[in-house]
Design a protein that fits this description.
alpha/beta; seven-stranded parallel β-sheet; 48% helix; globular; single chain; 2 domains
Amino acid sequence: MLAGKSALVTGSTSGIGLGLARALARAGANVMLNGFGDAAAIEALRRDLAAETGVRVAYHAADVSRPEAVAALVEAAEAAFGAVDILVNNAGLQHVAPVDEFPEEKWTLIQDVVLNSAFHATKAALPGMKRRNWGRILNLVSVHGLIASPYKSAYTAAKHGLVGLTKTVALEVAETGITCNAICPGYVRTPLVEGQIASQAQVHKLPPDRVIREVILAAQPSKRFVEIEEVAALAVFLCGENARSITGSSIPIDGGWTAR
């Protein structure tokens, strides 16, 4: 489906980003991985994914909170594959606190990683996409790009900004073969969320199954996690030719959360 295309996925050494990278590679795209982690484990991951899929898989350790590192990351992907046809802005982090107690350095870091890195990566990748008259930009946003939750001011602000960036880019390139869309998952069962389940079980003195239903998924009407594979399948579809008229969209995949 994506044979001959090349993708760059930020924050792709674990969680949703890794699931997206795997799905794109299995669809035939070369993939540039990015993120933090144990160097040996990442190399094993890269090697195994390349062996499984038969595509080229590379890795770059850019810290996407730094604009110059983002530019170097895009440049490295173009050097490795000849192009960045698909850009997935997935890198993110979270911090929870009331607004009046929110650490300013955490606010800045979240904006840098979630919103500013997507701007810098998009700016760097667009010239090549325009020359080829083809490109797919996907921003992994979360439902917090569409709604708010208490104590997540920085994350919600950054994700709302990412929705706005998605719309603007889509309008600017609407007459080219480039699309730009936002995917907005609800709660996805990732290693990070698994840790939250354990900690909330201790705080509320509840068994894990009740924490999942009554605390973690309280706002998600389906009362089930979104699976990484579901998000990845949507991403692969949006990168295909049948999605060429879908652009500027923010697509919830949230078990009905935003239908309330």
